[in-house]
Amino acid sequence: MTHGMRTDTQSSYVDGGGRDGWRETATRYALLPLRVFLGITFIYAGIDKLTNSAFLSDSGAGSIGAMMHGVRASSAIPALVDLALKSPVGFGYAIALGELAVGIGTLIGLLARLAAFGGALISLSLWLTVSWASDPYYYGNDLAYLMAWLPLVLAGASVFSLDAAWRARRRQRAGEYRY
Predict the structure, then answer these.
(1) Helices (H) and strands (E) in the chain, counts
(2) What pLDDT does 13 receive?
(3) Which residues, in sequence order, are CB contacts of 111 under 8 Å at separation 6+?
(4) d(CA 84, CA 137)
């Protein structure tokens, strides 16, 4: 029974399947470098925030509180900044732990679409607050990160991921129980 899905094994990817085999392999692994980059970057960003005592402060140079006060007037959504200012340290921890969770989920491919959606939301919120005033707009990197997350939201992690291993295991078990 076919459903428009390939049923052959992966051996064609490595057995010199010609130009088409190379293209299929490249297509299959195309999002892996993006996944690795975003995963490592967000893990690093989360750890950097959690280990920076100046960042996790209400006020002072380099603090999340000072940064939020500094961007409030130029933010696209000042109410979002006001929400963060109610508890800047709590917001700083939330962003840092969110970045860490998103990075780990993306890197190991655990609930990869959900992790990518979380990364997109973090990037969107930072773009609308912290980097909104960047002129020209492409100087602010949060918009580029938002755009980078979208292919992973749509495609997930199809290779080298826990999600892919779980799918393969479910398919294998479903095949065992068909008879």
Answers:
(1) 9, 0
(2) 43
(3) 105, 163
(4) 23
Q: Which residues contact 49 (CB under 8 A, 6 or more apart)?
A: 55, 56, 92, 95, 96, 99
pLDDT tops 70 at residue 41: yes
How far is the C-alpha of 117 from the C-alpha of 153, rounded, in Å?
Answer: 6
Retrieve residue 37's tokens. Answer: 């980059």
Any residues with CB less than 8 A from the CB of 122 and at least 6 apart, and which?
42, 95, 98, 99, 102
pLDDT tens by residue, 163-179: 999 999 998 888 876 65
CA–centroid distance for 51 within its chain: 21
The residue type found at 51 is T
- Count other Cβ atoms within 10 Å, centred on residue 27: 10
User: DSSP state, 137?
Assistant: G
